[in-house]
Write a structure and sequence with these properties.
The protein has 106 residues and is α+β, with helices and mostly antiparallel strands. The protein is 56% helix and 17% strand. A hairpin with a 4-residue loop joins strand 3 and strand 4.
Length: 106
């Protein structure tokens, strides 16, 4: 996983602040997931050259896919919570009904 190493920087001759991820972290994350980063155009350059960059055109679809997967997981968890809430409310109604019966004996 890419750690929380989103960086900000200012380029020479460009006063705007830019944001990015550390290319070495992306490369390491690919390797940790059994993916050979040299087979893809995502990470450019080498550590030996001293310069590594991420290709935004290659990285963006991966981010979109990750967001889609997270959204699917969120929707499943929301459905699970709704189901658990309904089951809890149903059980509470049963307990309250039993309690009413017990209290009617007094």
């Amino acid at each position: 996983m890419i750690e929380d190493r989103i960086t900000s920087f200012v380029r020479q001759h460009d006063p705007q602040i830019h944001f990015g991820v550390v290319a070495q972290d992306v490369r390491e994350a690919l390797i940790n997931h059994g993916i050979d980063p040299d087979k893809f155009a995502l990470v450019n350059g080498t550590e030996e050259s001293g310069t590594m960059t991420i290709s935004p055109d290659e990285f963006t679809p991966l981010l979109i896919k990750a967001i889609q997967q997270q959204q699917t997981r969120i929707e499943q968890l929301e459905a699970d919570v709704a189901q658990a809430r309904a089951a809890f409310q149903n059980r509470m109604a049963q307990v309250e009904a039993r309690l009413e019966v017990l209290e009617s004996y007094h």
